[in-house]
């Protein structure tokens, strides 16, 4: 437990903070710009950005501490009964989280593709609204702040090339082709037409009449309004709320991590089955190693502590985590030095994933040993430290994608605080 708690604390404090310092770039428009590092050690002007999926990894990590809370409930309630049952319930829940996490990893590419498709569709919405603004002879919103129907109808009539009172797929495509989208979006024009048709064609006749067009554009304008700041005079704010919507759409697409993937190892499809089998075998092998060497590891720490006079706390909580997490530290530093959102996302996702697997896989093995052997669960200080660090860093990483340089100091300070707290609780209050 000392090794587990020490590893979690080390990863989320020292290594996490080091990645911010090593990978810092200039922050512009709330996003760290790839490879641009001209502001030096500015606490607010430089930092690291990650994609949206890294935030999800942080949330999953925060959820993974629930088995610790379950097994600790009898201690919190000052109850001597039900401790063995609490260990069993925590074990079952931990295994459930482990299986769920593995399944999430399997289906994540599909989820990511759906989110990316939605982001591209929002780019189409933003482009058409910008076109509407450019060609509007009047205001897009009336005095009540509602979509201006006359302006929308003028765009419809201009797009209706054959004058039959409805837009075909070809006419919609001509409208979309005329919009200048950013090159990095990689927009498929035919796919965009299909999505717009699906949005507008409520009669399902493969055409968009004027009423459907007005209703669809009005719905889009209202969505854009919710992203901006509409005051009492919407006419003067039209440009601002459309600009806000466009900027947020670009930022969302950017933070989905669609950029250069040259830093990743792209495996061919023909090896996917073998990769799956190998991953499962490695998972089972790691579990077996953790189970087999748990007792010898404890005995070794005891013997080494007795022979050298070094407290077991220092060995298990500080020395062993430094040794066992050295590969994670090297990986994190190497990838952070590339100073890109893509590589920073990989780095922090790896940190969160490593902590998650420790919380569910290693804890499952440990709880199984405790339950089978009928041992007493008495690790309150370690559980408290894991809980504090995972919650603080998990929440911090869950609700933001840009981390200024000052956030590294918070992580660094959390490390000595954790060491001091465990030492005081163990040696002065006798928690363990």
UniProtKB/TrEMBL annotation:
GO terms for biological process: intracellular calcium ion homeostasis; sodium ion transport. GO terms for molecular function: calcium ion binding; calcium:proton antiporter activity. It is found in: Cell membrane. Its main location: membrane. It is a multi-pass membrane protein. The chain crosses the membrane at residues 85-107, 275-294, 314-335, 355-373, 379-399, 411-429. Residues 147-182, 188-223 form the EF-hand domain. GO terms for cellular component: plasma membrane. Pfam families: EF-hand_7 (PF13499), Na_Ca_ex (PF01699). The keyword Repeat applies. Residues 1-17 form the signal peptide. Keywords: Antiport, Calcium, Calcium transport, Cell membrane, Ion transport, Membrane, Metal-binding, Repeat, Signal, Sodium, Sodium transport, Stress response, Transmembrane, Transmembrane helix, Transport. Belongs to the Ca(2+):cation antiporter (CaCA) (TC 2.A.19) family. This is Parvalbumin.
């Amino acid at each position: 437990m000392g090794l587990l708690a020490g590893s979690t604390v080390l990863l989320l404090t020292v290594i996490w903070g080091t990645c911010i310092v090593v990978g810092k770039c200039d922050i512009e428009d709330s996003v760290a710009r790839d490879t641009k590092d001209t502001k030096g050690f500015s606490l607010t002007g430089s930092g690291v950005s990650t994609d949206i999926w890294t935030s999800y990894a942080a949330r999953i990590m925060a959820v993974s501490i629930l088995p610790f809370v379950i097994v600790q409930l009898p201690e919190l309630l000052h109850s001597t009964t039900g401790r063995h049952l609490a260990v069993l319930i925590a074990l079952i829940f931990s295994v459930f989280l482990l299986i769920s996490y593995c399944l999430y990893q399997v289906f994540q590419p599909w989820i990511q593709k759906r989110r990316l498709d939605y982001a591209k569709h929002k780019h189409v919405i933003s482009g058409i609204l910008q076109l509407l603004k450019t060609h509007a002879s009047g205001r897009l919103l009336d005095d009540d702040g509602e979509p201006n129907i006359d302006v929308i109808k003028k765009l419809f009539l201009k797009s209706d090339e054959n004058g039959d009172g409805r837009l075909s797929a070809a006419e919609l495509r001509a409208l979309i082709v005329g919009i200048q989208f950013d090159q990095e979006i990689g927009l498929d024009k035919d796919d965009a037409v299909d999505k717009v048709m699906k949005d507008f064609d409520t009669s399902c006749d493969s055409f968009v009449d004027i009423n459907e067009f007005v209703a669809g554009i009005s719905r889009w304008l209202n969505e854009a309004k919710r992203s901006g700041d509409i005051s009492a005079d919407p006419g003067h704010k039209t440009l601002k709320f459309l600009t806000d919507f466009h900027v947020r759409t670009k930022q969302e697409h950017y933070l989905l991590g669609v950029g250069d993937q040259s830093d990743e190892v792209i495996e061919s499809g023909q090896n996917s089955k073998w990769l799956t089998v190998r991953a499962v075998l490695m998972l089972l092998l790691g579990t077996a190693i953790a189970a087999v060497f748990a007792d010898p590891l404890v005995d070794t720490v005891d013997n080494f502590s007795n022979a050298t006079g070094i407290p077991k706390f220092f060995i298990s909580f500080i020395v062993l985590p430094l040794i066992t997490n050295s590969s994670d530290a090297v990986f994190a530093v190497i990838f952070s030095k590339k100073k890109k959102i893509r590589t920073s996302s990989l780095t922090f996702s790896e940190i969160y994933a490593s902590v998650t697997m420790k919380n569910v896989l290693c804890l499952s093995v440990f709880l199984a040993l405790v339950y089978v052997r009928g041992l007493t669960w008495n690790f309150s200080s370690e559980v408290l430290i894991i809980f504090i660090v995972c919650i603080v860093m998990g929440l911090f990483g869950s609700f933001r994608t840009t981390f200024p340089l000052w956030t590294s100091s918070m992580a660094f300070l959390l490390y000595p605080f954790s060491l001091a707290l465990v030492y005081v609780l163990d040696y002065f209050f006798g928690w363990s």
